[in-house]
Amino acid sequence: MAVDYGLQGQVAVVTGSTSGIGQGLAQALAGQGVSVVLNGFGDPAKIEADRAAMESSAAGGARVLYHGADMSKPAEIADLIAFAHREFGRLDILINNAGLQHVAPVDEFPDEKWDLLIAVILSSTFHATKHAVPIMKAQGRGRIINLASAHGLVASPFKSAYVAAKHGVVGFTKSTALELARSGVTVNAICPGYVKTPLVEMQIGDQAKARGIPVERVVEDVILAAQPNKAFVEYEHLAGLLFYLVSDMGASTTGTALPVDGGWTAA
């Protein structure tokens, strides 16, 4: 039996939601009757097909729209939040999920890749939150969820920009949660272990090249080496935590960084 989390009629913006974790969480919210604004890059025809399919399966007549903001550009991020508010008249949930990866030794790490990862992962979280908070404050309620990754809590080699950005997201989560503690707006970070997303598929190849080992060994000895349960995290596992945090049950949970990582960060 499906659980009703009392979210029907709410509105969410999910950045980086044309594939992977963002798409999975957007789909889960639409299934609870939440109208969603998708965002991300990709083939326009596929994005439209996925948007239409998500809307057709959404509960309670929820709508699914798309905005193509480049999350490295502050003005476009501001327009994304304004678009959601303009179209729906409210904004209840913001999921800062946009991200990308580049794997290289720190002394060979391209300057432009460093700047891009910091912009898309960390700075976009600031810009989207900055513009969402006044809307949520005026409503007296809001939920901000930052996808911070297990790499927001621990480090791995060859991922200096990603790890730095994700640690920054955790710090930003804590700071903004304290600022908003009496406003009805909560801010939390979800820290997944490895989910078999297109981004992770790319990382497998990149790690094989950086370490000079076969792809098969990367999965067992590198990607899942840190996860004691030796299993990829499923989208449903993340959605379960998301529903708690964005529902009324999560009203007293704020400023946390919650791992969903098969025991990775327990060591």
From TrEMBL:
PROSITE patterns: ADH_SHORT. Its EC number is 1.1.1.175. One of its GO terms (biological process) is monocarboxylic acid metabolic process. GO terms for molecular function: 3-hydroxybutyrate dehydrogenase activity; D-xylose 1-dehydrogenase (NAD+) activity. It comes from the Bacteria. InterPro entries: 3-OHbutyrate_DH, NAD(P)-bd_dom_sf, Sc_DH/Rdtase_CS, SDR, SDR_fam. PANTHER family: 3-OXOACYL-(ACYL-CARRIER-PROTEIN) REDUCTASE (PTHR42879), 3-OXOACYL-[ACYL-CARRIER-PROTEIN] REDUCTASE FABG (PTHR42879:SF2). Belongs to the short-chain dehydrogenases/reductases (SDR) family. This is D-xylose 1-dehydrogenase.
